[in-house]
Amino acid sequence: MLHDRILVAPDQDSSERRSSSGIVIPATAVMGKRLAWAEVVAAGPQVRQVAVGDRVLFDPEDRAEVEVNAADYTLLRERDIHAVSQPEEADSSTGLYL
């Protein structure tokens, strides 16, 4: 990866969604602008806010798709990312002091 580019693997389960009441919303349903989650696979040397393994939120309309070894990826700039969700540590404490 070069400069501030990030390679992400989009979530495959984002095509169909369920409402809070359990109704299945198909991928063909037209809704307002919706952001998508993806996992960072690779990052360029000038990327500061994102690490490999993080989940990022991005606009699926502003993307460049690429296929590598028969797998689909999305190429983004760091500035195109709206949010970062880092993986939760397994043995994290509750933060309470006794």
From TrEMBL:
The UniProt entry, under Gene3D superfamilies, shows: GroES chaperonin
> Which UniProt key words apply to this protein?
Chaperone
What InterPro entries does this protein's entry cite? Answer: Chaperonin_GroES, Chaperonin_GroES_sf, GroES-like_sf
Superkingdom to which the source organism belongs: Bacteria
Annotated region described as Disordered, given as residue ranges: 1-20
Q: Which CDD domains match?
A: cpn10
The similarity annotation says:
Belongs to the GroES chaperonin family.
Q: State the protein's name.
A: Co-chaperone GroES
Biological source species: Arthrobacter sulfonylureivorans
